[in-house]
Every structure is written in C-alpha cells, then in structure tokens.
Amino acid sequence: MPDHAPSDRATDPRVLVDAEDGLPTRAGTAARRALLAHPVVLLVGVVLASVNMRAALASMSPLVSEVSTHFGLSSTASSLVTSVPVLFLGLGAAIAPGLARRFGAELVLFCALLLLGVGILVRVLPSVGALYGGSLLVGTAIALLNVLMPGLIKRDFPDRAAAMTSVYTGAMIAGATVAAAASVPLEKALGGSWQGSLAAWSLLAAVAAVAWLPQVLIARGRTGREAAAPVPSSARSVWRSGLAWQVTLFMGLQSLWTYVLIAWMPTMLTDHGMSRSTAGVVFAFNNLVQVVGAFVVPLLAGRMRGQRPLVVLVSVMVAIGYAGLLVDPASGAWLWAAILGVGQGGGIGLALTLIVLRSGDAHIAARLSGMAQTVGYLLAAVGPFAAGALYQSTGSWTAPILTMLCVCAAALAVGWAAARTRTI
C-alpha cells in the first residue's frame, strides 16, 4: 500500500489496535482498559524501563580502558565490547514483534529486564568470552525494550504520543547520564573493582522488573486474539515503503553517531591529556545535556506539520560538535559535549517520534519500530568498531571524526525525506 496522508484511524476509540500486531479479544480489550485505569502504574513502569535502555551501555564507556588493560585487548578488540551490544540491538529487534505477538508486550518487556540484569552480571565474569557473551545478552534485552516501547506508546497514549516519547527518551538518557557519571567513582569506592562498578547496574534492572510486574498481571488477558480477525494489510507493507526506509536510515545514522561517542568519547579526551575521571564527568555531562534535546525535540515535532527544521537542527549540531572535537578537543571539551548532547538527544528523540508520527496506527508503529531498529542498529553497530579500527590503523582520531561528519551529512539527507507529512 502506498504512503498516504495522515488519518484519525490511530486515535479512533472504536479501533483498539494492539502493539502486538493483532486484534484483541474481548478479554484482551477489557484487560487493556484495566491497565489504562492505572496510569501511575503504567507511567512508572515506562519510566523505569526506559532508564535501563542505555545505562548498561553508558556505564561501560568510562571503564573501557580498564577492561582492555585487564584482558590485554587491542583498540579494535576493545571496540567490540561496545559494538557487540549495538549489533544485538539490531538482531534482537528482529525477534521482538514475534515474541510480543506470542506472549504479549508486557510479559516480553518484563523478561527483557530480567535478561538485562543477567547479562550485566555475566559481563563481569572473569573471561573474555563472558565479557562478550554478557554484552550479547545486554544488547538483546535492550533491543526488546527499544522495539516494543514505541508500539506501547502509540497504543496506550494515542493522543499524547509525542509527549510520552519525550518522557521515555528523557528517562532513557537520564539513566545513561547517571551511569556514565557514577562508573569511575563507583569503581574507586569498591576498591578499584571495575567488575563491581559494572555489576551494580543489574540492581537497576531488577527494580524496573519489579515495577513492571503489575502491568504483566493486569494485562495477562491481552495475549488472546480473535482468530478470524485478519491483520490489516497496511501493517504488512512497511518493508516496501520508501518512507519507512527513510525513517529507518535516519534511525540508523543518528544511532551510529551516538554509539561512536558512547564507545570512544572518554578515550578521545584522555588521549589529549585529560584525566580519566574528568573525561568521565565530561561524558556524563554530554549525556545529561541530551535530556534537553530528547525532551524538547519530540514535543516540538508533535506540534509541527513537518519536522524538517528539526532534522537540520540536530544534524548540524552534531556535526559542529564532532568538528570541535577535531580542532580543539581538550580546552573546548565542555562546549563540544554540550552541543553534541543537544544534537544527540534531539536526534534519538526525533527518530523515535518519526516512527510514531509516520505510522497510521499501532500495528504499523510496532512493525516500523521493529524494522527501523533492526536495520538501524545493525548499521549503528558498524560505528564503534570502524572508529576503533581507523584509530588503530592511523594512530589519530582525525579519520574517525571526518567519517562521522559524512554520517551527519547523510543523516540530514535521509531525515529531510523522512520528515515530510505522510504516514505509512
């Protein structure tokens, strides 16, 4: 089906579309209404789950040099510590819609939080295999959270989708900020144990799982579907939609520029003479500032008929920040961290909002989310590894940063197309 102008199908109260890609039974509809009758439970669950969506990744970045030294890893091998989770953000995204259809989104999200806690603990076991294996589990768990959240937002908050996107992206980045800022101090407080510092974040996943459990219990009737009700044909068309591919590529490119910084920003700064503790604080500040962009940009996007000015804004800000790291990385670090932060936060907030705004209903939002995050994060996984390989081969951060400037230009081009006022 071709792309078409927006309709009010997504907000029609008679059409109780479901994020799991099926039409609910009467018991399922009743269970959803019971869930929506407890908005505080729903909101707390969304916020705490979102806090975990980057914390496990951001907590590793300030400690990469310690982990590399402990295991004797090269720069390229070290980049895999952060590339593997991003790779499995993509691979895990491919299985999320099927799991949600089979078991229900609430239960899958609960299990993802448990898997995240297990992966964080496995990652600190005393072997390189466990380091990478735990990273695999972490990436898969976060992928499930990433993919299912936009569909839930579109389903349960159809009239406030942009505002709720601001809430959950802001919570996600706040979690990353705390993790980045606390990793090195926590390591020192635990007697120099990077293992203890990383393992501590499993507690955050456990708290979120406990908070999500009431939603699983309330919504347990929602996994039933009417056997005779077909999935709308529009929901099967996302892989053949040019607009869907534009949204997907923007998701991937903005993720790529962010995950390169998550993997390497502290190392870039320490290579120019900054202490490890200060570099960690600058990195945390970068994550903190992202909250501004992640919160404001989706709100603006929801009020604008087209989002092209926002695409230009976030792409140009990230390009300026990367250029700053190239020409004056040490003395200008705080300025570049701030500019990058607003651009990064705005980029992820805009990408997630475009998934919702370009979708005609929650069926399409769930499928587009799966497509955008499967392809997007597979593309983004190339970033940390490629940047590490370029750095190792050239002995300088010039080539990686110039490559990121090209990524910013490409994101501007595809984002410009994705921001047109159309739906799938």
UniProtKB/TrEMBL annotation:
Q: What region holds the Major facilitator superfamily (MFS) profile domain?
A: 38-422
Coiled-coil stretches noted in the UniProt entry, renumbered to this chain = none
Q: Where in the cell is it found?
A: Cell membrane
- Please name the Pfam families in this protein's record: MFS_1 (PF07690)
- Topology of this chain in the membrane: Multi-pass membrane protein
Question: What SUPFAM superfamilies does its record include?
Answer: MFS general substrate transporter
Q: What is its main location?
A: membrane
- Gene3D superfamilies tied to this protein: MFS general substrate transporter like domains (1.20.1250.20)
Q: Which UniProt keywords apply?
A: Membrane, Transmembrane, Transmembrane helix
Q: Where are the transmembrane segments?
A: 35-57, 77-100, 107-125, 131-153, 165-186, 198-218, 243-265, 277-301, 310-327, 333-357, 369-391, 397-419
User: What is the protein named?
Assistant: MFS transporter
Q: Which organism is it from?
A: Streptantibioticus parmotrematis
Taxonomic lineage from the root: Bacteria, Bacillati, Actinomycetota, Actinomycetes, Kitasatosporales
